[in-house]
Amino acid sequence: MGICNRRHFLLTICILQLITTVERQVFDFLGFMWAPILVNFFNIIFVILGFFGAFQYRPKYIISYCIWNTLWLGWNIFMICFYLNVGVLDKNSDILNLGTGSFSWWHVNGPGCKAIYDVTEPELFRPARPTNVTNCVLDYEIVEILHASTQCILGFIAIVGGIYLSKVFLEEDDSFDFIGGFDPPLCPS
C-alpha cells in the first residue's frame, strides 16, 4: 500500500504543476513573453511525461521528468532574480520577450492598476508600453515572483518524489518469479 501513496503523491504534484503551468502560460501569451511561453510549453510536455511515468510504472519517464525539473527549477530561480533586478539583470530589458518589446501582462492589468500611456509616435511592431502605472494592489514583479516561487516549490517536491518513486520502481522491477511467473502488480487497480 505504501507505493500507491507515493505514486499518488507524484501524480498529484504533476496535476498541480500542470494546472499552474497552464495558468502561467495563458498570462505569458497575453503579454507576448516568448521565452517563458517556450519554456512553459516544454514544462507541460515533461509534466505529462512524468504523469504517465508514475501512472504506468515507467522509471525512465520519471527520471527524465526529474532531470527536466532541475532545469525548470533553475529557470524559475532565474525568473525570480530577473524580476528582482539581481546583478546585471534588468526587468525592463528585452530578454524574456526576445526583442519584441512586449512586457508582462500583469504590468498593466494587475489588480487595481491604472496605466498612463504617452504615445506620441506609435511603433508599428512594438506594443505601447505605459509611462506610469499607479494604484496597483500588487506590483507585477510580485505576481511574477509568486508564480515562479510556486513553480520552484512544486519542482523541488517533484524532484524529491520522482527520485524516490523511480528508485522504488527500479527495485521492484525484478518481480519475475521463476517458479510461478510474474508477481501481482504493485497497486490494485
Question: How would you portray this structure in words?
Answer:
Helices cover 61% and strands 5% of the residues. By secondary structure, it is mainly alpha-helical. The chain has one domain. The protein has a two-stranded antiparallel ribbon with strand order 1-2. A two-stranded antiparallel ribbon has the order 3-4. Helix 1 runs antiparallel to helix 2 and helix 2 packs antiparallel against helix 3 (59-83). The chain is elongated and about 85 Å long. The model has no long low-confidence stretch (mean pLDDT 86). The chain crosses the membrane at residues 34-55, 62-86.
Provide the domain count: 1
Summing up helix and strand content along with how strands pair, one would put the structural category as mainly alpha
Question: What is the strand tally?
Answer: 4
Q: What spatial form do the alpha-carbon principal axes imply?
A: elongated
Helix content: 55-70%
Order of helices and strands, N to C?
HHHHEEHEE
Report strand order across the widest sheet. Answer: 1-2
> What characterizes the major β-sheet?
2 strands, antiparallel
The helix tally amounts to 5
**Terminal CA distance:** 12 Å
Strand content: 5-15%
Determine Rg (CA atoms, Å): 21 Å
Overall pLDDT: 86
Low-confidence stretches: none
Using brief descriptors, characterize the structure shown.
single chain; 189 residues; mainly alpha; two-stranded antiparallel ribbon; elongated; cell membrane; transmembrane helix; Sodium/potassium-transporting ATPase subunit beta-1-interacting protein; transmembrane; Na/K-Atpase_Interacting
